[in-house]
Structure formats: structure tokens, C-alpha cells
Automatic annotation (TrEMBL):
InterPro entries, sorted: DNA/RNA_pol_sf (IPR043502), Rev_trsase/Diguanyl_cyclase (IPR043128), RT_dom (IPR000477), Viral_Replic_Matur_Polypro (IPR051320)
Organism ancestry: Eukaryota, Metazoa, Ecdysozoa, Arthropoda, Hexapoda
Designated name of the protein: Reverse transcriptase domain-containing protein
PANTHER family the record matches: POL PROTEIN, RIBONUCLEASE H
GO biological process terms, semicolon-separated: DNA biosynthetic process
CDD domains: RT_LTR
Amino acid sequence: MKDTEPFAIKSYPVPMKYRDQVSEQIEQMLTYGIIERSTTPFINPLVVVPKKDNSVRLCLDARQINERMVEDHDGSEEIDQVLRRCNKIGVMSSVDLRSSFWQVPLAKESRKYTGFLHQGKTYQYTVVPFGLRISSSALNRAAENVLKGLEKKRS
């Protein structure tokens, strides 16, 4: 972080029709270790995004963190390079990770920056939340690490 001065951005109101769903998701996230209770002074707003199936997605409005975050220049490989390599592979597979960013642990010293409030209680993420500037590159690095060497293990 370029600037570690604490901030507390006012929370957005949760529409009444989504309040129960949001509370249930917060409880599930706590149970699964996605978030934890916190005393962090860094408070970001949560955004409730309605989905087509009438459920909701909780997103961290991480604009304040993103402005202060050191740039991560690690990106994805160019698609033409990936396709050239795929041309040589006999068998391929694909994986669809549910809530993929939540598969990537967040360093303990970085968790405090992901704080948010829900019903007067403070929480912080233990995994990379959707909305961080570095979320995609962190997921790419984790996937590369898991898949490292598989390309060479052809029969």
C-alpha cells in the first residue's frame, strides 16, 4: 500500500428485500472462513448486486484500497500464445471455480484493508475479494502455481 492512513467509507443501505439474503451470506462466509470478525479501522462499503436468479452477490467497493494499492504488473498470458500451446495438446480440460477469487488466500497483513460493516459489526476478508485491483492477477498466479508442469506430463 502506498498510503496506510485508515479510512472509513460510509456503507450503502441494503434494500429491505435483500437484507435476509445478505445476512445469510455473511453467516455462510463466516462459517466457510471467507471473512472473519475484525477491529480494522479500514472500512469499505459493501455493494449488493442482484443476480438473474433473484439471489445476490456481495461485492466490496474497493475503490479506496485500489487507489492506494501498489500496481501489480503481473497479468495473463496473451491468448494467441495459449492457443499455440493448446494446438500441441492431445487432451484438454476446463475447470469452473465457483467464487474463484475466494480460492486465493489473502496475506494476514493485507486483510485489515478489506474491512466492511454489516449490521454494526466489522468484518474483513481472509481471501482475495472480488473488486480488488489485484484480484485477477492473484487468481492467475494461484492457477499457474497449481497447474505448473501439467503441460509437460503428456503420455
